[in-house]
Amino acid sequence: MARRIADNAGRLLLDLQNRGELEGRALCDAGDREANRLILDMLHAERPDDAILSEESADDLSRVARSRVWIVDPLDGTREFGERRDDWAVHIALAIDGAPAIGAVALPRLGLTLGSDAPPPLAAPQTPPRMLVSRTRASKLCADVAERIGAVHVAMGSAGAKAMAVVRGEAEIYLHSGGQYQWDNCAPVAVALAAGLHASRIDGAPLRYNLPDTSLPDLLICRREWAAPVLDAVRNCMG
User: Which class is domain 2-115?
Assistant: First the structure.
């Protein structure tokens, strides 16, 4: 179901772009609004007893007492969507008792949706490792860690696009320390874990969802053989 909802939202967003009626901020606002409406309508129809946390809706904190909570980002990478780049995504995830149980990440401009139900096999890694960083606001910590482990920077847009690049074998490491929210990474983490990758906070702690505070400021998704070196480098760089 998560994959189907992500696909439908992705088609809606592509249609908005292709109609050419809106540009810039107006296009981005319409994408956020219309994709959110579609996703919420589908979830309410098919899982009426589940709670929902969406970036584009008011947060109902009664969700914290619920076991099953859908955590969604209707349009991850709004800037990239407005610029008609490829690196934006749709995130649909189900957290069960705080764990990222099910996830789907659509990459509509690439015609791909990756899901925790059938993740692709991991490709052979490259050396030196490729580390994905924000194309607009890469942090000093990420730069310092990359230098310490000898990684090559690869700049990319949305969190979902970067996480799925590791799943797809286009990079070995995605490290983020510049601030995110639960909807930015719940679906990508669910897919990454299903694919056999490592996913954690940058101090190595597990990622937990459906907490009252929606902030989830840092993230590491990487091939398992790079988890310990990256976490050690983070500790050393942070002093």
Answer: alpha beta
